[in-house]
Amino acid sequence: MPTCIEIAVFEVAKSDLARVLEVSETLFSEINAEQKNILAHQILTEVDLSTEIAEGEAEAEDILEESSAENTPELTEVCWQLTWANTEAVQASKSKWSTYPSSAEIERLVGKKLYYGHFVSVIAK
User: Is the full-model pTM beyond 0.90?
Assistant: First the structure.
């Protein structure tokens, strides 16, 4: 069975960013405690590119202005990129979500869920 990639993007208060990173790592460990469901992960945070935009790049500026967290100085975006063993591992963890000690805190710390999706390979090499 192919691995499954999960992408989740959340708004997070900048004041909570360090705690979100810490709790995310703890949560991933809890998910893997019984069985290695998450094979790899990255936690990414939004990069402010607005200071690197040269004059005359109005289109790029417009894109940056549309970002929800970009317009709110107290918010940033955090992205989880998780590589799951397979889709069954995702389902098993989903059904146990409320039993993970860190799940309630992560739910409390993250704001709006901006994007959430799972992907599997459709072309075998």
Answer: no
